[in-house]
Amino acid sequence: MKTTALITGFTGQVGSQMADFLLANTDWEIIGLMRWQESMDNIYHLSDRINKKDRISIFYGDLNDYSSLQKLFESKKPDFIFHLAAQSFPKTSFEIPLETLQTNIIGTANILENIRILKQKEGYSPVVHVCSSSEVYGRAKVGIKLNEETPFHGASPYSISKIGTDYLGRFYGEAYGIRTFVTRMGTHSGPRRSDVFFESTVAKQIALIEAGYQEPIIKVGNLESTRTFQDCRDAIRAYYLLALECQKGKIPNGEAFNIAGEEAFKLPEVIEILLGFSTRKDIQVQTDSERFRPIDADYQMFDNTKIKSFIDWKPEIPARKMFEDLLNHWREEISRGRIPLNR
């Protein structure tokens, strides 16, 4: 019987690229969990394979619908679970805090409870990757590198929801012997990055300006943040390698890992890099107060020592390449007539 991997958040940037990685680098069967009404934008390139049942299929369900997850796990029993689904935008979490908490905490608990029950009844023992976030650390002191022992500091409803997610991954691993591991990924980007995130909205606006859909003014929020960036595709490789080590029993149940880029930028530097790739030289930058968060995690530097002690991994895709690929992604979307909202 072939190895099967479940990807929650299948239609997102990380989930869709996780599917791409597994298709290219394994012979595993892949199940993508999605709600029926979700956008297909990030997975249209997989439609033919999905239709032909060529190693990849869709299961319609919802993290907040326990019964749909129960049906999924009882019928499929995937060997690996990459739990990537979430309400993932910190600024939006201030506007929909209850939905953020419900989806990210209770949704994760729904997955882990189903696994716990099947483990107790049938000995089901998958590897479960619980995706937390570097946002659990909140605001950090300037000059301090964050490691896995750094105390949590909730700086948004999103970060609080991910603190809950993080603790659930550890608890179910330690209490019930489920083979979980937790990742806290720093700022990540590249193609398919949602346009609500800083570097992606800047790239999107540049592409809109180049195509004549926007005046040559980029609107941005807080520019005082300094953070590392890494390409999502590098992080996905780390997820996969950690999952293999977890399967071998080389990672203690519930262990958490920072996964972060090693190139740091102030946000004005990111704008400058992206503008350097543009064909337009008349673009101005304007601050928009509506794009500010009530509180921001405005300084985050990371220590990757722990993950490197478990797997042979380091970021390989340069940040400048990542930013260029992101801008080209938006140019391609617009050239296809997929005009994004100006937000």
Topology:
Blueprint (H helix, E strand, L loop, with lengths): L3 E5 L4 H13 L3 E6 L12 H5 L4 E5 L5 H11 L3 E4 L6 H6 L1 H26 L4 E5 L13 E2 L10 H20 L2 E7 L2 E2 L8 H13 L6 E4 L5 E6 H16 L7 E5 L3 E4 H10 L7 E4 L11 E4 L2 H6 L8 H17 L8
Parallel strand pairs: 1-2, 1-4, 2-3, 4-5, 5-7, 6-14, 7-11, 8-10, 9-13, 10-14
Antiparallel strand pairs: 10-12
Helix pairs in contact: 1-8, 3-5, 5-6, 7-9, 7-11
Q: Give the averaged pLDDT, no decimals.
A: 93
Distance between the termini: 47 Å
CATH superfamily of the domain at 4-189 and 231-259: NAD(P)-binding Rossmann-like Domain
Shape: globular
C-alpha Rg, in Å? 20 Å
Number of helices: 11
Order of helices and strands: EHEHEHEHHEEHEEHEEHEEHEEHH
Number of strands: 14
Structure description:
The protein has 343 residues and is an alpha/beta fold. It contains eleven helices and 14 strands. The protein has helices at residues 13-25, 47-51, 66-76, 90-95, 97-122, 157-176, 198-210, 232-247, 267-276, 305-310, 319-335, and strands at residues 4-8, 29-34, 56-60, 80-83, 127-131, 145-146, 179-185, 188-189, 217-220, 226-231, 255-259, 263-266, 284-287, 299-302. Strands 3-2-1-4-5-7-11 form a seven-stranded parallel sheet, with helices on both faces. Strands 6, 8, 10, 12 and 14 form a five-stranded mixed sheet that branches. It is globular and about 65 Å long.
